[in-house]
Amino acid sequence: MKINKKIINNLINIARKKNIYVVIRCQIKKVRYLDVKNCNIDRSTLNEICGTGIHAFTKSGHMGFASVDSISDKERLIKCLSSAISLAISTKKGKLETLKEIYKLKPTKGKTIQKVRIDPFKVPKKNIEKDLLNLNKKIKNKYRNASVTNTIQFHSDKWFIYRSDKTDIEFSVNNSTLSTILSINTEKLKNDLYEATSSLGYEVIKDKNIIKIFLKNLDKKFKYIKSNNKIKELKGGNYPILLDGEIGGVFIHEAFGHTAESDNFYSESPLLSNGELKKGNKIASNFINIFDYAEKNERAFQPYSLYGVKRKKAFIVKNGKINSLISDFITAKKTNSTLTGGERTGLYSNIPVPRMTNTKILLDKNHTLHPPFDTKISDVREIHKFLKAKNFFIKYPVIIFLVGSTGGSVDPYEGNFQFQSIASFKLTKDKVEILKPLVFSGITLKVIKSIKLALGEPIQWPGVCFKNNEWIIVNASAPMFLLEKNKFVTVV
Amino acid sequence: MDKLIKTIKSQKNIKNYRIYKTKSKNIVLGVKGEIIGGPYNPIQTSFSINGELQIEWNDKKISLINLTSSSFENPRETIKRAYETKISDKYQRIFIEPYKEKLIKTNQYSRNISNLINNKQDTLIQEIENLFNYERSIGIIKHESTIEASETYVELSNSKGLYLEDNFSSYGFASSWDEKLFFGYEERKSFSVKTYLTKLKFLAKLYKSINQQIKVKRFMTHNIKVILSPEITLDILNQFIFENLNGSFVANGMSRFTKQDFNKKKKLFADWFTLKINPLKVFTPGAYNFTQEGVLCKQTTFIDKGKMITPILNLKHASILKFNPTPTITEPYILSFCNTKELFDLKKYIKSCKEAIFVPYFLGLHTQNQMTGDYSLVSPYTIYIKDGKLMGRFKTIVRGNIFEDLNKDIELVKSETFPLPGICYNPKVIIE
């Protein structure tokens, strides 16, 4: 499947003759998926999706959008363009909202290809099957009572963006995810857990270091959920909380990433006041920085927005102060934020909106402790020993430690959030007690003030994010960090 | 004949095939903030062809791939792609023979929807304006609504000579009031939004109450009656029950329910809990005549008076578990989960409550553990009810175990805005 530039130019010319400005967005997406359940291949697919989305704008800025699942069928593409144009005209009649900002964008040309170490689409299918079966057998042998599912997914996503102002952008991005679900259903114990790791290419299953960390984390979580039978319930309340990098990453994504998306201009966000960014408002200690940007070698890399604007780093919180939003050309000016080219979508038929890529929290080195072990794979007892040696329990007699996350949710309107941990512990000077997996909830801007220090290096959370009725690939990066007791943060 | 079918038939290494094809067209218009048809919700149409291709090769291996319009345009590429993904799967080698009796078609298609999609864009604009104006009249500032009309043509054929086709149409809207209250409505034919608005009166009362924050003592653990909105009740069933009924999960030990639970018709829930669907309801959203594998739909009971009857099964997992295949649960309009219990009117029920809370929605329901059934859910906009009056809102955390909750006696409340009832029960409530 290839883009036919002649057809694209023809569409732009047809639109021009009708005084219509167009943004044409073509996508070619390949997905290979393999699922192994209890040592048998359960599903193998290779899907190719392609299509075109066309935005049509009248001179007055009235707009219409149409999409078709083809990038090369001239007749259907012309029909799609006609639909977009006729919808734009109908909105003019209906006196609906206009968008004139489109005419202020500068023409851009560019091509960016995200390279992979091992291209999964060039690996023979039988090798992929063999590698995943071997991994599944290895895990199944270790956890004999459990049902074991391993899934591997490879994505290659090519985008082509053309505008009437001669903008011509091409970029391709890749992503590979390896995951395991362990399910135990016995008389004594019913539970399950999910572990995932990610890279750009086939190395996700071939790189020994990636697999080693993956299996260690799986083992650690399995031990925790196995002991969930002996657990205690915690009386809900405010406590000092230590978040591991995984739940910390989910927290940064949900609580800060989502509140920083500039389309909140049309609803509400704790970062906005009367629609404008509260730039400069101090919300955290000076040593806290939160930003959203995926480097070229990182998961969720997006070099251009899907309107063809170059994506820039969104420095959401800089030295503890509100600084920027993840913004698009539609709302950057309205919210008084820097334009970061944040529009994303997973599919050509959807409308791009401001969305995260890789959201990161960094604490400066004076507020980061470096334990003598790797916090990516460390066990609760190692952490307890370290905290005890550093006399943490004098200041914080009880610390609630939350490990892993099955996800979270935030209401960007008022900043209420909720995160579910996979395992939870009550740490006191002489004891480590396992608790029923706790929920951590609170109000976004109130909680960030309580971040006091980080432990170890950031870890990567290879996530997916749901917004606007679609899931897209994202990432978050956070070290283990400690939150002081705060009346707006509850664990229960 | 379809280019793809023709090419498949010409292949000597293909023993059997099944093609499921859908052609869909829709039109959508939305409101965000105070703007109708703004940049994030412009008026938009889409046209797509999708489907699924299943092939049994001469070496007995199986391929199952998704189809898009380019798959039909480039049949040789499609077959090559299918060949590349073939696997050994003896349970997937089922291709249904043509039915002897003629398929009784339920009517699910209205021509006036097609007219709406192709020629009546102004009507759509007018309809969303009606909804928007009503919402504004009751004080909503941050609207988020969409209105959508769609039509789909479905066609299924296989190498055994089975040929089935059907047409569907749908028209409906969904709305969120300040992200605090949610509702939606759908029909197979077009209707006037204005006629529906009268049903929203009680919801408007709830909305008023949600905007009044009340002060309470924090971290009190209450034994208070909890009324879950019908919408959140369905979400809970979806998260904990429907997911665990998934045939693939049951067959692979990934469900809380085991094969033995169904074989022995084990009683895991209270008598009032009967989960069944009727996918053959005429002119009903979610209703359909046959599955994409060609299995004819019929009324199906998954849980009967608390006893486990069958998982939700496609042909493969029906064959593994030795049950009959079933239709899947699509929309609430074809579903019921209680057929004997009295349904109280939500409005009257609230009036009769001495003390209770109403939960419109939970944050992060999808993060809860399906296997254990434990939940600990934040409800940022809980409405407090005292002596039958809506007093205002506070934030609560509701805790429990869904498998224990559904094994107890509960009460059910029906609202005008949703086809299924909400449940009233007594879990632990923590005021945050």
Describe, in plain words, how this protein is organized in 3D:
The complex is a heterodimer of chains A (492) and B (432). In chain A, the strands form 4 sheets. In chain A, strands 8, 11, 12, 13, 16, 17, 18, 19, 20, 21, 22, 23 and 24 form a 13-stranded mixed sheet that branches. Chain A contains 9 helices and 24 strands. Chain A has 492 residues and is of the alpha+beta class. In chain A, strand 9 and strand 10 form a beta hairpin. Chain A is 21% helix and 39% strand. Chain A has helices at residues 5-17, 74-93, 125-142, 203-206, 208-226, 245-257, 380-389, 392-395, 444-447; strands at 21-37, 40-57, 63-68, 109-113, 147-163, 168-185, 190-199, 241-243, 272-273, 276-277, 288-292, 314-318, 321-322, 343-344, 353-354, 358-363, 368-369, 399-411, 416-428, 431-435, 439-443, 451-467, 470-483, 489-491. Chain A folds into 2 domains: 5-229, 2-Layer Sandwich (PmbA/TldD fold), CATH 3.30.2290; 241-274 and 281-292 and 357-491, no CATH class. Chain B is an alpha+beta fold and 432 residues long. Chain B folds into 3 domains: 3-205, PmbA/TldD fold (2-Layer Sandwich); 207-230 and 341-431, no CATH class; 236-336, no CATH class. Chain B is 25% helix and 34% strand. Chain B contains 13 helices and 20 strands. In chain B, the strands form 3 sheets. Chain B has a 9-stranded mixed sheet. In chain B, strands 1, 2, 3, 4, 5, 6 and 7 form a 7-stranded antiparallel sheet that branches. In chain B, strands 12-11-10-13 form a 4-stranded antiparallel sheet. In chain B, a hairpin with a 4-residue loop joins strand 3 and strand 4. The longest helix of chain B has 17 residues, at 121-137. The radius of gyration of chain B is 24 Å and the shape is globular. Chain B starts with a helix and ends with a strand. The mean pLDDT of chain B is 93. The chains are: A alpha+beta (492), B alpha+beta (432). At the A-B interface, strand 2, strand 3, helix 2, strand 6 and strand 7 of A face strand 2, strand 3, strand 4, helix 2 and helix 5 of B.
